[in-house]
Design a protein that fits this description.
Number of strands: 24
Bound molecules: flavin-adenine dinucleotide, nicotinamide-adenine-dinucleotide
Shape: globular
Largest sheet: 7 strands, mixed
Strand content: 15-25%
CATH class of the largest domain: Alpha Beta
Helix content: 25-40%
CATH topology of the largest domain: FAD/NAD(P)-binding domain
Radius of gyration: 24 Å
CATH superfamily of the largest domain: FAD/NAD(P)-binding domain
CATH architecture of the largest domain: 3-Layer(bba) Sandwich
Distance between the termini: 76 Å
Number of domains: 3
Structural class: alpha/beta
Length: 466
């Protein structure tokens, strides 16, 4: 006999699970959500939000340091820069508490029953939480798995001591003097840039032939240039091999076989994340898999009737906003609405310095899909707003079909471009043509004008470019 019954049972209270729960509750679906750790998942507790808070603090510190050293072009000078890092961490933790508390309140308002504890899957409709006298069995018509992902560990660099995952790297109590970072992807670069600005000596160790291999080289070049300015040593085509014999530092090996010892107070391992699917019975359901990820269809249905999966366990792109959009969709399907995944694009932002935004197809991807495409590019060095914020590196790029000017993709790299992501996504979702963006009045002075100019450029009539 079940202790509790529900129409929808959600495992995991991250962005996927909690959004599904709120939407289901809004639609009157009797919903239970089980979370073993903290509401908000990786995103709010150890991921998106903590990293962006520390990136902001590091930017502030870096600007003050430049003013104090007399190197700011604006003429702003200061007497000195210092940072109370424990206050920085407390400030970051306060933001996390506000947001996770807010999620709890929203779930309550939506009438969702939240159960704290690990869900152990018994079958596709039954889950147990807790042990002994505390054990509670829950049955539901529909099971939604949203258990997220955890950092991949390298066997010769197990997490612990001075070897950190991103979670520990975002919760340090002191700024390390030096940090070796294995993996120059999203996490390695976001955290690497921030600690470099806080004064740490950073060495990136990347196996691929360039940093951020998920993005095309034109987008990553301005980031590489900035890393040089920040004094970051980026070792490419290089693998971590193991600890030095005395336990200090890290031995790395270049493709040519040349080995080097990197002395570092901390080692951050950021070589990707793996779906959290082991140790709690879900693997025994025998769901069809897509590599390491749970296979889903365009409604996030798994191979077992009545069992849905969303978020990081369903594979790339492992992004919070994808998990949320999937969660909202599944909740509506469970409530009886006719929904399927019909999104044209999922924006991606890398919060490096400068930031990178990418939505839809890059020029190379359009070519690889045998689409005849044209490209319009506008550099920020010709954009007034970029100059007035003291950063004119980077550009906006638009990719459109040659035959009808329908926009296939928009990318940008530059300081502050993350806030352009919404307009890029909207343009793709609405099926805009170049003429739609070119014909819309863009406020001056703004970085957004570069988007209009890139459209003009693709139409062969750039206005502010010689
Ligand atoms: P999660 O957020 O991982 O949530 C899963 C939840 O399920 C967890 O709370 C976990 O405790 C719980 N759970 C697991 N198993 C059980 C069980 N058996 N019983 C009960 N509960 C269980 N994405 C972005 O879009 N933008 C960013 O800027 C960004 N920055 C990031 C920075 C870092 C350092 C990291 C690590 C990630 C970042 N991400 C970012 C990725 C983002 O955090 C994830 O894509 C997102 O959190 C995935 O949501 P999810 O709901 O699938 O899983
Ligand atoms: P990632 O896939 O972005 O980068 C991992 C990097 O490690 C790759 O460049 C890979 O070539 C390299 N690598 C792998 N094995 C290696 C080895 N043995 N030695 C040296 N290099 C090696 O993964 P991540 O940075 O760990 O981030 C995980 C996921 O979290 C991302 O895929 C992303 O979905 C999400 N995330 C998103 C954001 C954001 O949206 N701004 C920020 C952080 C994380």
């Amino acid at each position: 006999m079940a202790d509790l019954q529900a129409k929808l049972l959600i495992i995991g209270g991250g962005p996927g699970g909690y959004v599904a729960a709120i939407r289901a509750g809004q639609l009157g679906v009797d919903t239970v959500l089980v979370e073993k750790d903290a509401l908000g998942g990786a995103c709010l507790n150890v991921g998106c939000i903590p990293s962006k808070a520390l990136i902001h603090a590091a930017d502030e510190f870096y600007a003050v340091s430049r003013a104090a050293s007399g190197t700011s072009n604006t003429g702003v000078r200061g007497l000195g820069a210092s940072i109370d890092f424990s206050q920085t961490i407390a400030w970051k933790d306060g933001i996390v508490r506000r947001l996770t508390g807010g999620v709890g309140a929203l779930l309550k308002k939506a009438g969702v029953k939240v159960i704290a504890g690990q869900a152990d899957v018994i079958d596709g409709k039954t889950v147990a939480v807790g042990n002994g006298a505390q054990r509670q069995v829950i049955t539901a018509e529909t099971l939604l798995i949203a258990s997220g992902a955890t950092p991949i560990e390298l066997p010769f660099l197990p997490f612990g001591g001075d070897v950190l995952s991103s979670a520990e790297a975002l919760a340090l109590t002191e700024i390390p003097r030096s940090m070796a970072i294995v993996g120059a992807g999203y996490i390695g670069l976001e955290i690497g840039c921030l600690y470099a600005k806080l004064g740490a000596t950073i060495t990136l160790i990347e196996a691929a032939s360039r940093i951020l291999p998920h993005y095309d080289e034109d987008l990553t070049k301005p980031v590489s240039a900035r890393l040089k300015q920040l004094g970051v040593d980026a070792l490419i085509e290089t693998h971590a091999k193991g600890r030095a014999e005395n336990g200090c530092g890290l031995i790395v090996e270049h493709r040519t076989g040349e080995q080097r010892l990197i002395e570092a107070e901390k080692i951050l391992v950021a070589v990707g994340r793996k779906p959290a699917l082991s140790g709690w019975g879900v693997a025994d359901l025998g769901l069809a898999m897509n590599g390491p990820y749970v296979q889903i269809d365009d409604r996030c249905r798994t191979s077992m009737r009545g069992v849905y999966a969303i978020g990081d366990i369903t594979g790339e792109p492992m992004l919070a906003h994808r998990a949320m959009a999937q969660g909202e969709m599944v909740a509506e399907i469970v409530a009886g609405l006719n929904r399927n995944w019909d999104k044209r694009a999922i924006p991606a932002i890398c919060f490096t310095d400068p930031e990178i935004v990418s939505v839809g197809l890059s020029p190379d991807e359009a070519r690889a899909s045998a689409i005849d495409a044209k490209v319009g590019l506008f550099p920020f060095r010709a954009n007034g707003r970029a100059m007035t914020i003291g950063r004119d590196d980077g550009f906006v790029r638009i990719v459109a079909r040659s035959d009808n000017d329908v926009i296939l993709g928009i990318q940008a790299v530059g300081a502050g471009v993350s806030e352009l992501a919404a307009s890029f996504g909207l343009a793709l979702e609405m099926g805009c043509r170049l003429q739609d963006i070119a014909g819309a009045v863009h406020a001056h002075p703004s970085l957004g004008e570069a988007v209009q100019e890139a459209s003009f450029a693709a139409l062969g009539r750039a206005m502010h470019m010689a």
